[in-house]
Specification:
mainly alpha, Annexin V, domain 1
Length: 80
């Protein structure tokens, strides 16, 4: 299975489609523990208002564990 961090290698168009097809809460959970460069790759491919909402959600997710984030990342990759 492909690692979530491999999305760094995807073209911007594919990332934009992924962002549009993924619920914002799933993105927040998946990116909560992602590397900074992967987060930035997503942030640069979304509108400013969506980035702001996503950042706010990520900061509010205090009870999410790395394992939960990994599950959501796997779910996103399955649908990619």
């Amino acid at each position: 299975m492909k690692a979530f961090s491999n999305l760094l290698l995807e073209e911007n168009e594919k990332i934009m489609k992924l962002i549009d097809s993924t619920p914002i809460m799933d993105l927040a959970i998946a990116l909560k523990f992602a590397e900074c460069d992967l987060q930035e790759h997503f942030f640069t491919n979304m509108p400013a208002h969506k980035k702001q909402t996503l950042c706010e959600l990520m900061s509010e997710l205090e009870d999410i564990s790395q394992d939960e984030a990994n599950l959501v990342q796997a779910k996103i990759l399955e649908n990619f």
